[in-house]
Amino acid sequence: MSDNHFKYSNSVIALPLFFVWVLWFVYWLQIKYDFDFDENGILPRIFSGLQGIVFSPFIHADIQHLYNNSIPLLILLAALRFFYAKQTYAVIGYGILFSGFITWIIGRENYHIGASGLIYVLVSFIFFKGIQTKYYRLVALSLAVVVVYGGMIWYVFPKVDENISWEGHLAGFITGFALSLFYKTPEYKRIIKYDWEHPDFDPMRDKFMQRFDENGNFVNLPKMEPEEEIQAYYSSNLSVDYTVVENEKNESKPEL
C-alpha cells in the first residue's frame, strides 16, 4: 500500500466535532435541567453499573473536566480517522465497550465517568499501531503522540491523583494496545520509481555504475564487440513513434 492510502475526507473534521458536540450537549442538558447523570456512570462489580460502560464517556463532572477531554478528542479522533480510516469506528466502539468493562472489573467502588478512558484507547492504539507498521509516516505519528501525550502514562498508576479514575485510564491503555494487535493494516510500501531502489538491484549490471571503479573514479567501459553493441542498443528502452499525415498537396511526410 502506498501513500495514496491516506485520503482526506470531510469526516476527518466532522467526526471529532460531532463527537465532542455530543459531550457538550449532554453536559448542557445536565446543567439546564439539573440532571444528575453521575449515577449513570460505571459502578464496578454492580450489575446496574454495567450501563455506565456505554454512558460514562458522555458524562462529565464539571466544565473543566469536559474541556480537558474535548481538546485531546478533537486531535486524536481526527488523526485516527485520517490515518486509520477503516479501523476508526471499530476502535471507537470496541474501545468504549472493552475499556468500560475492564474498568467495571478493576475499578474502585465509586462512579467512574468521563471520556478519558477513550482518550487512552486512542493514544495507545495510535502509538502501538504506528510502531508495528514500521511505516515512516505512522511511526512519526506515534512519536508525535508520545511528545504531546506521553505524560499521560503516569495517570494509569494508582495514588498519583485520587480524584481521577486511574482504573479507567489503565483499562483504556490496555484496550488500545489489544486493538492495535487485533486490527491489521495494509503493508505500506513506497512506490519504486528507479531501478536502484529495488532491493535486488545489482550496480555491476548497470551501465552507468559500470563507468565508476570501486573508489568512485570515472573509468571508460571496455570496447564491446559489434554484436554486443547491437544487442545493447536494442535492449535499451529508447523508442520512437512515427505517424504519417497528409498535407494540403496530398503529399505525405513523416512527423516525429
TrEMBL record:
Protein's name in the database: Membrane associated serine protease, rhomboid family
Main location: membrane
Record-linked Gene3D superfamilies: Rhomboid-like
UniProtKB keywords: Hydrolase, Membrane, Protease, Transmembrane, Transmembrane helix
PANTHER family found in the cross-reference section: RHOMBOID PROTEIN 2, RHOMBOID-RELATED PROTEIN
Family: Belongs to the peptidase S54 family.
Transmembrane regions: 12-30, 66-84, 91-107, 113-131, 138-157, 163-183
One Gene Ontology cellular component: membrane
GO process annotations (BP): proteolysis
Tree of life domain: Bacteria
Compartment(s): Membrane
InterPro entries hit by this protein: Peptidase_S54_rhomboid_dom (IPR022764), Rhomboid-like_sf (IPR035952)
GO molecular function list: serine-type endopeptidase activity
Keyword Lipid metabolism recorded: no
Classification via Pfam families: Rhomboid
Native species: Flavobacterium fluvii
Recorded topology in the membrane: Multi-pass membrane protein
Residue span(s) of domain Peptidase S54 rhomboid: 52-182
